[in-house]
Amino acid sequence: MADGFLLSRVLLKFQHSEDDLLQELSAIARTPDGNLWVGSDEYLTLERLTPVGNGIYGAHKTFHLKDFVELFDQDSEVDIEGLDYSDGYLWVVGSHSLKRNNAKGKKTEKDIKRLSKIERDRNRYLLARLPVLHGELVPTCTHNDSVLTAACLEKVEGHNLLMDALAEDKHLGPILSAGIPSKDNGFDIEGLAVQGNQIFLGLRGPVLRGWAIIIEIEVENTAPGKLSLKDLGDGCLYRKHFLDLNGLGIRELCLHQGDLLVLAGPTMQLDGAMQLFRFENVLDHSNDTLWNQESGCLKVVFDLPTVPGADRAEGLTLFPCLGYENGLMVVYDSPDPARRPDESSIFADVFRLPAD
Fold first, then answer.
1. By the 8 A CB rule, do 273 and 251 touch?
2. Rounded to an integer, what distance in angstroms lies between the CA atom of residue 239 and that of residue 173?
3. What SS3 class is residue 344?
């Protein structure tokens, strides 16, 4: 499979030096007004960029999540891993993962001790929707004669209703109960795609015997500012879709013409293949499913170019470009220095999606 056809590069310009943000871009979404919204692993904010001409996005503005939904605390990271727009809402999801401390490379004894420590940041258990009005995030507004309100999936006992529902799952429950961190093939949400109240969550891990997992849920309003999981039938609160992605985990999701574009990459923290797949007719399933590449419903679209030690593709959004409606923008974690023309700017790639 050939690399994707690179249509263009778009320059994202931030207000000032944002090294931590630009080194760890993890999610991007384009709203119908033409603005781009980005999130980072380490931040409690969303960043808006506006087109300013000549393939450049700027006029950077920061929005704090705590101003719209209730977080567990004001300090720990959300670990934003997915953004999507649907029906007047910008949706955001945290990784829902545990993390293992990293070795710092200074003192061996301390590094060995650090590698034994596993931490839980409660803010990572965030799935939220935020109304968008005239390029601004707002607590509430009217859209197409409907009242939109900011809300998040209801919190329970240091996590949320999704984690409660998955605790007894025969595939994911053992992983969760074992307390396996994300980069050790533990539970780790890194993909988000939304159609109305139908939500798809792509897991970077666990990958089970080579099978990646998408969790499908629907949400509904309960109390002000709170969402609950909708019963999908017979008391089931979620569906699972198992995909053969050549042993890779899911890094991001993006809906396109009723199909799901799936960005796949290594589950562990290492260099490796990055591939884009198309999972067809994803909105039509009413049960758990399993798809190999011989099914005809799961296809490799293209390989993404790889750079050793850098350019780990993390975020996707549809982006019309140079007369092509089917452009796909990609942003990268650990970007190659060539993407950074200065301390406050970074280049995103736009690839052409091939015609069916």
1. no
2. 14
3. coil
What is the chain's length? Answer: 356
pLDDT digits (tens, 9 = 90+) for 271-284: 888 999 999 999 98
The span from the CA of 143 to the CA of 131, in Å, is 9
Q: How far apart are CA 150 and CA 166, in angstroms?
A: 25
User: Exposed, middle or buried, 279 (CB in 10 Å: 0-12/13-18/19+)?
Assistant: buried
For the chain, give the longest Cα–Cα distance.
Answer: 62
Strand ranges for 198-307 from DSSP E: 198-208, 211-221, 226-229, 239-244, 249-256, 259-265, 275-279, 289-291, 298-303
Q: How confident is the model at residue 323 (pLDDT cuts 50, 70, 90)?
A: confident
The full DSSP string for 323-334 is: TBS-EEEEEEES
Higher pLDDT, 348 or 296: 348
- What is residue 23's DSSP assignment? H
Contact 225, 231 (CB under 8 A): no
Q: What are phi and psi of 22, to 5 degrees?
A: -70, -25
Among the residue ranges 9-18, 87-96, 161-170, 189-198, the one predicted with the least confidence is: 9-18
Q: How would residue 21 be classed by pLDDT, with cut points 50, 70 and 90?
A: confident
Distance CA 329, CA 337 (A): 19
In the predicted structure, residue 86 carries a pLDDT above the cut 60: yes
Radius of gyration of the chain (CA): 19
Rounded percentage of the chain residues whose pLDDT exceeds 90: 81
Distance between CA atoms of residues 111 and 12, nearest Å: 36
Residue 172 CB neighbour total at 10 angstroms? 21
User: Using 50, 70 and 90 to split pLDDT, how confident is the model at 32?
Assistant: very high
Closest CA to 127 of 99, 179, 157, 89: 89
